[in-house]
Amino acid sequence: MHLRRNIFACAWLSTLNILGLHAAHEHGHVAKALQVSSTLNPLKIYVHNVSSRFRDNKEAWTWIHTSLYGLELTFPEYLLQSPYITSNPEEADYFYVHAWIYNSQFRDMDALIMELKQAGPWWDRKGGKDHIFVLVHDLGLCDNAVGSQPAQAQFGKYLSQSIVLEHWGKPTGVAPNNPCMIFDRWPTECDQVFQMLAYEEKGYRPVPCYTPGKDIVVPTVTSEAPKTTRYLNSDYKNVTQNTLVIFGGGINQTHLTDSSRPESDAGYSFGVRQTFARMYHNHPEIKIFYKMVDDYWIHFHGSVFCLAPAGWGWGARVKSAVTRGCIPVIVQDGIKVDWEDELPMHEFAIRLPFMYLHRLPEILHKYKRIGRAVQMQANLACVWQLFWWTRPHGRAFEMTMCVLKARRDGGQKVQIDFKSCTLKCGNSAAVDFRAAMNLV
């Protein structure tokens, strides 16, 4: 047993040298290891350093690292330099599987799980329930519904019990998206419920894209340029907020002028942005941008609220709004967003059912009139760092550890105090997450 532990320790140190210290040297946005503070029964995570073929992508450290799909590269950087790491799997609370399931050229889930089983008894001991995976696919665990790659078809088979860090918080499965050509075919194909029923009749059993209490919906690693946020760029602090709500993103503009054209490209976004644009493109208090413009962030900071609709898969609009001090208006029926099950979102965001979109200005003006908007903006000034990964300001990694620790300590919920900007993670004392990066 002593020899076996030495082998595991060597593997862990190899991982730290290869991807931890080396990555810290190459990527300046990663600060030195987190400071250790006194805490009761600290969280301990063992890293399964699986074969390098599961991290095989020569372009990973170029564009992927900071792209929408970069979490499975960024997360292990922070983890491997943190005080949560243990080289002894017998004392670990969780096991992180260091594999790039999306960005690697080799995606054989059968081979990955077999390697975990051969490493020791830890996978089989709890059926993988204490193992952590990062999954950045557009539809998370149920991406096999629209994909054909063997690895995607195995997500439900192997990861249905494991902890998945992902961006897509849809608790139900999804059916393949078909063009919604309402003049050419009967439009039940536009309805996700009818689509799911039709596929179940064919023997398809939907896999939940996200399971609350098991998985964690975390922010993306993109949209973190310091110059684009009022919290790090003083040029935006005094921008007058004359706009009620703003949205920037892809919309087919022909829908605004041709009322006979069906919303053939609206399926991926559930029609939210198209409906919003059709209703409000001439509204004097609402700004809509169909592409990026040079002064976009000035307009963005000049708005009190920011629309955060879904795309086909997840997006970064909630994170973009929160980290710029703009109150996100989430219009994503049936889809949970970043930290929604972990933080009291109603304190700094608004969730609006699609059926109330026609009352959007009326509802937002009420939030302003009764003083809720001002309080929400004050709370955003505290909470924004929990949606930001990049050092030295980011605390999204600490928030992830906080959720894991609270769950370990009897399934508790994370507690946040907006006045003191502190987090209470399980049985430990509250920590100020704005200060040095304390052990939660």
Automatic annotation (TrEMBL):
<comment type="similarity">
    <text>Belongs to the glycosyltransferase 47 family.</text>
</comment>
<dbReference type="GO" id="GO:0000139">
    <property type="term" value="C:Golgi membrane"/>
</dbReference>
<dbReference type="Pfam" id="PF03016">
    <property type="entry name" value="Exostosin_GT47"/>
</dbReference>
<dbReference type="InterPro" id="IPR004263">
    <property type="entry name" value="Exostosin"/>
</dbReference>
<keyword id="KW-0732">Signal</keyword>
<dbReference type="GO" id="GO:0016757">
    <property type="term" value="F:glycosyltransferase activity"/>
</dbReference>
<feature type="signal peptide">
    <location>
        <begin position="1"/>
        <end position="23"/>
    </location>
</feature>
<protein>
    <recommendedName>
        <fullName>Exostosin GT47 domain-containing protein</fullName>
    </recommendedName>
</protein>
<dbReference type="InterPro" id="IPR040911">
    <property type="entry name" value="Exostosin_GT47"/>
</dbReference>
<keyword id="KW-0333">Golgi apparatus</keyword>
<feature type="domain" description="Exostosin GT47">
    <location>
        <begin position="41"/>
        <end position="365"/>
    </location>
</feature>
